[in-house]
């Protein structure tokens, strides 16, 4: 049975800070992370998608969290083929052509920045979230393989945003590709029956880790502002739908990460707490193994 970890996609979101979730005395930079890590064993770090962090920053993250805590870290936007503003690049790289050489250099700096987390045993996985413009085909496969080769010595998780990757006809090929790449397939929960809806496929493609990201069930998924896309309050019924999938994933992997990306205010933290209440025993401390049996009643 897997070690199951539950958390949220970030701990410094403005809406979370404004919600009052952090009590007085825990609202400074260090206090927030320490308070968060007392309540959850896992967090996703989204900021490296927008700008490369420094090793000093990630070293402080490691120092402020207990043994067994995990950081899942999103890849920088250029590495996943997203539009990237020149100002997001380090100053000395802004004039370079956007070719394989630049990607290699960006990867090198990204890896150097995350080395303190890996060295401290805090790194869960790198999260390569690919844009909706990446559709199945030979060019996409070559791009994925090039990215995996750069990160060949690192844990590597892949989330697709184009629905075709997990369509019934394509899903077996997608799972086989990620298995061949030794990459974790990231399962997602979103609103269904929309043109942009990604099916909630949850294959196991590496025995070490499975990841589920709960994005909320907004009817504006794929459109509108960030708040429109991710605003959702999960109900108990919606989360219990996932218990059979969670049970199946937990039986086949060493570690299972369940992350909430819904907003706003403290909606993600409340949803994480709710799902955790369905998993027994409740993991109060980071690294506590849990089962996925739903409590009676």
TrEMBL record:
Signal peptide: none annotated. It comes from the Bacteria. Gene3D superfamilies: Protein of unknown function UPF0759. InterPro entries: DUF72 (IPR002763), UPF0759_sf (IPR036520). Pfam families: DUF72. This is DUF72 domain-containing protein.
